[in-house]
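Please, structure for the following, as tokens.
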Amino acid sequence: MRHLKCAADPTRLMTLGVFRDAAMPHLDGLYTYACHLLRCADDADDAVEECYLRAFRDYDAIRAEDIKPWLDEDLAQRLPH
């Protein structure tokens, strides 16, 4: 299993699998949400990819059970109004 150093705490190791297990079940729903808001599949792809990158970067500050609301909120905040 691959390990990545957490940016916020370099002494703590986090497995990629922990993030994957918490976040990836929500990928399809988040993409559908982004498509609904953006009305463009390419823009939705980009928005969701960026959202997941931010979630991975900040994952040490997000509790696993809170990841879905975090993803939804992050995506909604960064979309044009």
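Residues 9-13 have pLDDT under 50 and may be disordered. The radius of gyration is 13 Å.
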